[in-house]
Amino acid sequence: MAPACGYERLLEGPATAFRPLRGWTFVRKHSREGEGLLSVHPSVQHQLRGWFDAVVALGLRVKDREAHAHNLRVARLCVHIGRQLSMSRHELRVLARAGLMHDIGKLGIPDTVLGKHSALDDAEWNLMRTHPELGLTLLDRTGQSSREVLAVLYHHERLDGSGYPYGLSGEAIPIEARIVAVADTYDALTSDRPYRKACSEAEARRVLIAEAGSRLDPRAVSALFGAFDLSPRIRLAIA
Asked: Cys-Cys with 221: which of 39, 77, 88, 212 at CB 3.0–4.6 Å?
């Protein structure tokens, strides 16, 4: 059997393998990671390429390399979570696309807000909170209408209804959006941001454990820990 490559590496590679990735861009012909993600089984290659083409068609350019690296890491985390939950290969493809596109709405947010080195004021925060709906608008223009688009729209909703943009709660939030929320939260915590340094792995785990069941889906959190081969004791703490 040929070794796994590209999209297959999202399914077969260790969950810890993608933490060092930096500087990934959507410029396919110049991007090893971009080319790798498109080097997939023929049955899924066309679908994934369509999503990359949608991004290019929307005029996405490399404004923030770390933001693009974040999108790729979230996509990989989503796939590993889905795999721990025994999702089908089709469902894993949905998760990969949802993770890759979850922040596409930030194309409509000014760089002065995205890159601010201090806390956002109320007006800036309200503007930032519009990015899920902006993402829906952008993807609607490409003719997309699917579960991954709903994941883009709902990835900041929370189980207790405290999220945005609609304050959905519990099972009203699609499972894909709940998985993206966990992956996005973990990667955000463990990555440097303009306004703070990255948390340690232990600190990130504590945050996820504290929010599992109240704000974050506990099965998805447990699946993330399983992907990282964390101890059963930690997984049981959020059961």
From this structure: 212
